[in-house]
């Protein structure tokens, strides 16, 4: 992985490159960035740069023996650790290394969902178990074979059990020339003891234009299609790429029809709607809900007088403007919270018919009867 293959993130790339060229590589670093920001790809590109035998000012060379091994994730001094679904208690990340290489090379913007598909483990709980922690300690205690540096990239330390504390000693007193890169999404879910011992590299989510231009240039999307996906993906390139493979058009009509049914409290017509949604499949349902949340957010911007920040195509803008006549910000936020909650349950495989019927009833309450659920009220300063 070379820096040039990674979308945007110019400032982070420069900072990483400078740290190598100025000889300030800290041995334990935490790359913290939301899903789809490219944090894992950046960590791999950084390690490749560090070990490259012919470093260029702004990137690794891509052709030396080290780079070639890095590109296949087959360098003997490059190790990975990641959550997996242990079938036996002795399973470690190494058990799944073939799937890992295949997944990362195909999807450098890997998410846990995509990784789960590679592991064929639909509903199982992922984690990094104690056997894996011992394996990490063992790997890091060996001297590098070929490079000056031995690198271990640990993806999603959020999934370390309490046993993760076993790693503290190697983070604190590493072997010389070892580099420990943690790549995380949620700071609050990382063991504090680990957090306090690593240097933090914050990676922002991507900008709207970064994603839009990437989709136009690398995925041959039209300006309009790229704009729509960039807008829905909210800075998450992983999501944007998943959406490219699905039909996102049509969400607007279904969503608005749904709100209309709810507003009119047309109980009987809601059932066929729920059936239609239930047949969409999990990924589509998630995207549909995400579309709903984005659309409601744009309505809120309009209501707050910030129409200049709204990114909707003309026809959707027109509907959004009409929506602002039938709901206020408080109702919009309550609906948005219901959609978020539904998204959470879809991810956890709730029964879609029951789920969408329930959320429809909640939206009727909010839109028609103006009952705002507790805890969602907007509290002004
Ligand atoms: Zn090289």
Structure notes:
The protein has 381 residues and is of the alpha/beta class. 52% of the residues lie in helices and 7% in strands. It has a 5-stranded parallel β-sheet with strand order 2-3-4-1-5, with helices on both faces. Helix 1 (10-21) packs parallel to helix 2 and helix 9 (208-219) packs across helix 10. Zinc ion (ZN) binds at residues 52-54, 60-61, 64, 66-67. Zinc ion is lined by residues 52-54, 60-61, 64, 66-67.
Helices and strands in order:
Elements: H1 10-21, E1 28-32, H2 39-51, H3 65-71, E2 78-81, H4 97-106, H5 112-119, H6 130-141, E3 150-155, H7 168-172, E4 178-184, H8 192-195, E5 199-202, H9 208-219, H10 223-233, H11 237-244, H12 251-263, H13 267-278, H14 282-303, H15 314-326, H16 329-347, H17 352-367
Parallel strand pairs: 1-4, 1-5, 2-3, 3-4
Helix pairs in contact: 1-2, 2-3, 9-10, 10-11, 12-17, 13-17, 14-15, 14-16, 16-17
The chain binds zinc ion.
List all distinct small molecules, including ions and cofactors, that are bound in this structure: zinc ion
Strand content: 5-15%
Q: Supply Rg.
A: 23 Å
Given the structure, what is the number of helices?
17
Label the overall shape: elongated
